[in-house]
């Protein structure tokens, strides 16, 4: 399948299954303006499965098509592109990682697409040892908030596999003072999952930051704690 054929198939499918009413309902999940066709998740996953099953799509074609899909900004078109990308993970290499990092300059502008990268795609680069945690260092200083958010979200799966929380926590610690809410949510989620693995290591870290970090990070991090334990991390006035 050529790049133009891939783009045409994705767009034709989205247009054929469009639902204007669902587009309006989807807006409530996003702080940013939602631009899309209104497909259900089941429709998206079914199409991706069908396309991958044909074995007619390779990674270079998806990488070539992705910028055009992303620049148009239609939510489901981007989602299908990302899921196709994920399905071709056996073809990932270091250049793939660099290409992915460039997308934030013109796309990946909502939590859903950022978390598709962080939860599904980026952990595979670590699992396959295509890159190491330090290769995300520049992402921590990115001007794009969703690229920064991707780092702690990506490290959740990595941390669950290694069962070592402190290397990852120390790596992303500078994000404890990030100015963006979306990054706060990602950091809080990451710390909550770290706490499930090793409360004895995470709780002193939260004690250290409870009076200076954005409150949302601490709230998310403490979400699974008992009510009594949460009180330890209330900000001192």
Number of domains: 2
Q: Could you tell me how far the N terminus lies from the C terminus, measured between alpha carbons in angstroms?
A: 62 Å
Q: Give the topology string: H per helix, E per strand.
A: HHHHHHHHHHHHH
Note the overall shape: globular
Share of helix among residues?
A: 55-70%
Largest sheet: none
Q: CATH class of the largest domain, anyone?
A: Mainly Alpha
Q: What is the count of DSSP helices, taking H or I runs of 4+ residues?
A: 13
Strand content: under 5%
CATH level 3 topology of the largest domain = Leucine-rich Repeat Variant
CATH architecture of the largest domain: Alpha Horseshoe
**Poorly predicted parts:** none
Output mean pLDDT. Answer: 95
Strand-pairing-aware structural class: mainly alpha
Total strands: 0
Task: Tell me about this structure.
- The chain is mainly alpha-helical and 237 residues long.
- The protein has two domains: 1-91, no CATH class; 100-237, Leucine-rich Repeat Variant (Alpha Horseshoe).
- Helix content is 64%, strand content 0%.
- The chain contains 13 helices and no strands.
- The protein has helices at residues 3-16, 20-26, 41-53, 59-72, 75-87, 94-102, 111-127, 145-162, 166-172, 181-197, 199-209, 215-221, 227-230.
- Helix 4 runs antiparallel to helix 5 and helix 7 packs across helix 8.
- It starts with a helix and ends in a 7-residue tail after the last helix.
- The model has no long low-confidence stretch (mean pLDDT 95).
Describe the SSE topology.
Layout: H1 3-16, H2 20-26, H3 41-53, H4 59-72, H5 75-87, H6 94-102, H7 111-127, H8 145-162, H9 166-172, H10 181-197, H11 199-209, H12 215-221, H13 227-230
């Amino acid at each position: 399948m050529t790049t133009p054929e891939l783009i045409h198939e994705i767009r034709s499918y989205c247009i054929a299954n469009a639902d204007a009413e669902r587009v309006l309902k989807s807006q409530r999940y996003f702080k940013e303006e939602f631009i899309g066709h209104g497909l259900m998740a089941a429709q998206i996953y079914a199409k991706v499965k069908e396309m991958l099953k044909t074995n007619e799509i390779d990674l270079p074609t998806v990488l070539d098509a992705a910028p055009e899909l992303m620049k148009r900004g239609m939510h489901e078109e981007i989602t299908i592109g990302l899921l196709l990308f994920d399905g071709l993970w056996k073809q990932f290499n270091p250049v793939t990682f660099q290409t992915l990092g460039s997308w934030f300059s013109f796309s990946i502008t909502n939590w859903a697409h950022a978390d598709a990268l962080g939860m599904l795609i980026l952990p595979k680069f670590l699992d396959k040892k295509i890159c190491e945690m330090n290769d995300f260092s520049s992402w921590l200083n990115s001007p794009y908030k969703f690229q920064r958010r991707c780092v702690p979200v990506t490290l959740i799966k990595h941390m669950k596999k290694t069962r070592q929380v402190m290397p990852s926590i120390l790596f992303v610690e500078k994000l404890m003072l990030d100015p963006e809410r979306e990054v706060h949510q990602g950091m809080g989620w990451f710390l909550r999952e770290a706490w499930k693995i090793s409360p004895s290591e995470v709780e002193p870290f939260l004690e250290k930051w409870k009076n200076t970090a954005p409150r949302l990070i601490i709230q998310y991090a403490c979400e699974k704690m008992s009510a009594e334990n949460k009180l330890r991390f209330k900000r001192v006035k």
